[in-house]
Amino acid sequence: MARRLDELQKQYNSMASDQKRGMMPGRGPGGPGARGRMKGKPKNAKATVLRIMSYLKPYRFRFVLVFFCMFLSTVTSLFGSYMLAPIINRLTLAVKPDADISPSRPEQIADGVIRFFVDPIEALLGSEVLGYVLTAIMILAVIYLVGVLSTYLQARLMLSISLGSVQSIRNDLFCRLQKLSVRYYDSHPTGELMSRFTNDIDNIDVMLNNSLTSLVSGVITLIGTFIFMITTNWVLTLITVVFVPLFIFLGGMIGKRSSRYYGPQQAALGAVNGYMEETVSGQKVIKVFNHEEECVEEFKLLNNDMRDKQFKAQFWGGVMGPIMGNTSQITYAVTVGVGGALMCTRGLTPGALSVFVGYSRQFAMPINMISQQMATLFAALAGAERVFAVIDAPAEGEAGADPIAFGDKDPADFPKESPTSLRGYVKMEHVDFGYLSDRKILSDISLYAKPGQKIAFVGSTGAGKTTVTNLINRFYDIGAGSITIDGYDIRSLDRAFLRKNVAMVLQDTNLFTGTVRENIRYGRPDATDEEVEEAARLASAHSFIMRLEHGYDTVLTGNGANLSQGQRQLLNIARAAISHAPILVLDEATSSVDTRTERHIEHGMERLMANRTTFVIAHRLSTVRNANAIMVLENGVIIERGDHDTLLAMKGRYYELYTGKKELA
User: Fold this and answer.
1) Exposed, middle or buried: residue 372 (CB in 10 Å: 0-12, 13-18, 19+)?
2) For residue range 362-377, what is the model confidence (pLDDT) as tens digits?
3) Given a cut of 80, is residue 37 above it in pLDDT?
4) For 297-309, how does the pLDDT look when each residue is reduced to its tens digit (9 = 90+)?
5) 62-391 with 511-580: one CATH topology?
6) With contact defined as beta carbons under 8 Å apart, do 527 and 578 qualify?
7) Which residues pair with 502 in a beta bridge?
């Protein structure tokens, strides 16, 4: 069980060390795949905090207002509590006029504030004591109202700051995802990347909106409480402060233990999300092969592991509050005992003792608050580091994004050229490529295609057919040799310009939420409605589109779940047809349609390919008979080349495949 859990975690977590080395685990000759484990524990908390603070810079003025509101709220709360001292003293004297009460200087100041307003109230009520108490209550109401308003304003401002900062982080993350290389996506599960947008960013939001405010407010309250305490009675303050090292020791010990588990907790959560995403998207395959029970068992392994890690992280985060709270009760009890003795021996007033006892309890609250927020802080820092790791991942074209496997020239060494257009003369010379530095997928590939020609690739699964076409549009950079289009080395061309000139129909269809018209227009955003319909007719999609409820305005959701697989592929072909790209790549473009529809598509595709350089990958050899040249690949090497008749006359590998003597396996 433990071994299987380890295997699952390796599959659904990224391997940071491989990223640093510029390597990507592979799944065989056909392409990339396997994943590694990412260490979730924050490696540099200080750098992560500074990075988060950089997103708060646009809100500096609001932060000043937030801190002012925090200060005002803390002062009103503390001063309001201090106003109770003269009230208690006054009531004590009313009950026992001969009581020996000598108020301290701060108590006299508070008493003076009340007396400043008391005369008209006393005259109105005709009672000195009642007028004094009522005046004090009115002053307290005003003080606490100011505190409430400042707290409200603080919350509103901090909410806008946190949401704005998180919005910027989320935007940066999404923008970076659009710029990452295909190699990066090969080595990171979709569920793991999605967890950056959900769990990790949510943790940052909670930290900014709640934890940061609580930490700053706790520090201000701690300092303010200490000042009011020492002005009330320095002896009792000294007793309270003696317990501070105990609070710090307990908080530090628990916080240190808690911090160990928040990184693994987030990593385990990413593994669960990745597995869920994969099983939900692959439900048909799971049901076809009756793997429901195996999936349940594997999910239980991952889920149980996440539960164990969450228990450890949240236990140590949750136990801090009760421990710190009960420890503060010891301080409270000692303070009351010593304060009672001071009343009997040193003339400490009842009001001063009552207020100080409240301050003593309040003094522990910020420490508890700060300690309790450490759990959220550690979770947010772990999540933030994972988010920033993606944001900092090298984009396509940057160093480390797509390392050169066999030591050929770096793409950055090529002078950038900016042709206005391309005709489609493609030439590959002695190209080597491997997904891993020690394993070649393609060896010494050389070929050329003139504009309007159709080049077909056939061969066994994993022979490298798709890899060849992936190199043309620079999904990956070659390890050795060169690929040129119209004489321009593709490494000297801007990637966006290059891909605008290479249209692809992939075996796996991807449709986006939107109308049918919008999905076809994805191939060329400025296409008119007439051009969209013409492309659909060319791909034999117009007839079924018109049978949809709203025709071209039918909204597709869930990757076109309301369409058949064949219909989705037809839209995919129409999307490529609307493009003006001079180079066309068809990777098993008709694999998902029936034979009758395939004939219609081939008829339309002949018109589509008339003036384009076309590369075709097909397992149905009947679809490549009219190709100008057919390349037969095995183990990454072109073993035969020629047109259909020439290859049949050679009676080699192609002849064996075409006549059925050998199978594509």
Assistant:
1) buried
2) 776 776 677 667 767 8
3) no
4) 888 888 888 888 8
5) no
6) yes
7) 583
The answer for residues whose C-beta is within 8 angstroms of residue 71's C-beta and 6 or more apart is 220
Q: Which two tokens stand for residue 425?
A: 């003369």
Q: What is the DSSP string of 258-297?
A: HHHHHHHHHHHHHHHHHHHHHHHHTHHHHHHTT-HHHHHH
Asked if 418 and 494 touch (Cβ cutoff 8 Å), the reply is: yes
The residue type found at 444 is D
pLDDT digits (tens, 9 = 90+) for 99-117: 566 666 666 777 777 777 7
Residue 664 phi, psi (nearest 5)? -80, 90
pLDDT tens column, 638-650: 999 999 999 999 9
What are the sequence ranges of the domains in the chain? 62-391, 406-501+582-665, 511-580
- The token duo for 584 is 């066309």
**Quick one: pLDDT at residue 34?**
32
CATH architecture of the region 62-391? Up-down Bundle (1.20)
Q: Which two tokens stand for residue 25?
A: 């685990």
Q: Report how far apart, in Å, the C-alpha atoms of 187 and of each of 13, 325, 336, 464, 538 are.
A: 9, 46, 62, 19, 37
Comparing 40-49, 151-160, 571-580, the range with the smallest average pLDDT is 40-49
How many other CB atoms sit within 10 Å of the CB of residue 632? 24
What pLDDT was estimated at residue 9?
59
CATH class of segment(s) 406-501+582-665: alpha beta
pTM: 0.70
Output the six-digit token pair for 236: 């009792």
511-580, which class in CATH?
alpha beta
Nearest alpha-carbon partner for 227 in 236, 237, 235: 237
CA 490/CA 11 separation, integer angstroms: 34
Residue that the structure tokens 């005259």 belong to: 123
Q: Which residues in 150-189 are b (16+ Cβ under 10 Å) and which e?
A: bbebbeebbeebbebbbeebbeebeebbeebbbbbebbbb
Q: What one-character DSSP code corresponds to residue 554?
A: P
